[in-house]
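REVIEWER CHECKLIST
Item 1: Sequence provided? yes
Item 2: Single chain? yes
Item 3: Sequence as submitted:
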Amino acid sequence: MSMATREMRASFAFVERNFNLTKRYWGWEVAWLVYSLAAALSVAFIGVAQGDTRLLQVLVIGTIFWNFLSIVFGFIGETVTWERWEGTLEYTFMAPVRRYTQLVGSTLFAVTYAVIQMVVILVVMMLFFGLEFSGGNFVTAAAFLVLGSISFVGVGMMAAILPLLYVERGDQMVFVIQSVILLFSGVYYSTDILPGWMQFVSQFSPGTYVLDGIREGLIKGTPVTELLHDVWPLLIMGALLIPLGVYVFGIAERYAKRTGKLKRVG
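Item 4: Structure as written out by the authors:
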């Protein structure tokens, strides 16, 4: 058996483990799905109140696809937290498994889980409000969803070191990062309305380009070839952030082992 095959099988083992954890805590999964759906409906009603179909589409796309991206970011960012909750952090990090193998497994599970929840919420929203994207370019939306996932995976990997280094405050720090990305990415509004300095910062958020590309595709039917100004920043971010995330996580892991942080439960 080749090394690549062994590593891939190990990655799928982490996918299976996370799936079993999800089944164990199915009540929480239902609760989070209901919360996400209620939040999406609440925001969408703003467009209904204004009687503006275009605004309704903008809000629906923002809430649904931000939910997808935040789940991907959150699951990867909480990789260490899950291990600590289950009491398996020390065993997992001492096992003869490459760390990128675990991160790949966490990524595959996070994307799969996020896609399932996104589809459920999208179907409910379209039925509830009678929305149609008949002129939408779904290829463009899918392309930006993939590009966005890659970029958010890199950010999530770097955020995942925080619960490892800061046992008591790491989770809160991950949540703060997620909240800041939400603010600067134009989830519910165009980034053009932000103050100048915030518009500058928004250029470094992958969410800005993902949401703009998906809205252009689904609302205006714009092909991805006409949105290269949104594509190339995501390609650069993905190419830089994922290797950087794996590298930084490795440094944090070695530091945690050397200082005995793996045994702490916070």
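Item 5: Key structural point noted by reviewer: The chain has one domain: 3-263.
Item 6: Recommendation: ____
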